[in-house]
Amino acid sequence: MEVQKKIAVGLGVSLEEVYGVSTFYSQFSLTPKGRNHISVCLGTACYVKGADKILDKLVQKLGIQPEECTEDGAFSLTACRCIGACGLAPVMTVNEDVYGRLVPEDVDGILAKYVE
Ligand code: FES
């Protein structure tokens, strides 16, 4: 909120306008992003193919909820709408990498690729 206040003062606009823009565009986030950002698609095609189970597994493995970041800053997690890869449902992305036709058992191996 402090940063948003500074932006509002600097631009001469209301705090409400800054908040509206920063929550409207998906490129902006009010919470810190991890070095690796995981996004699980919860669009209709992915949801009916079990995306909620993929998200549950990630929550369990990372110990964070969607829109949170791990304490070490390695991972952040979010749920998103359709990313246009419905044929691969259920789908998740890690940074620019896309993983499809997932089952919960895939999560451990995918996370391992991003552990430093
Ligand atoms: S619903 Fe998940 S990619 Fe379209």
CATH topology of the largest domain, anyone?
Answer: Glutaredoxin
Ranges where pLDDT stays below 50 over 5 or more residues in a row are: none
Strand content: 15-25%
**Tally of individual helices:** 5
Residue share in helix: 25-40%
Order of strands in the sheet with most strands: 2-3-1-4-5
Quaternary state of this entry equals: single chain
Shape type: globular
Bound molecules: FE2/S2 (inorganic) cluster
Number of domains: 2
Q: What's the CATH first level of the largest domain?
A: Alpha Beta
SSE arrangement, N to C: HHEHHEEEEH
Q: Give the terminus-to-terminus CA distance.
A: 32 Å
The name of the CATH architecture of the largest domain is 3-Layer(aba) Sandwich
Taking Cα atoms only, what radius of gyration do you get, to the nearest Å?
16 Å
Number of strands: 5
CATH superfamily of the largest domain: Glutaredoxin
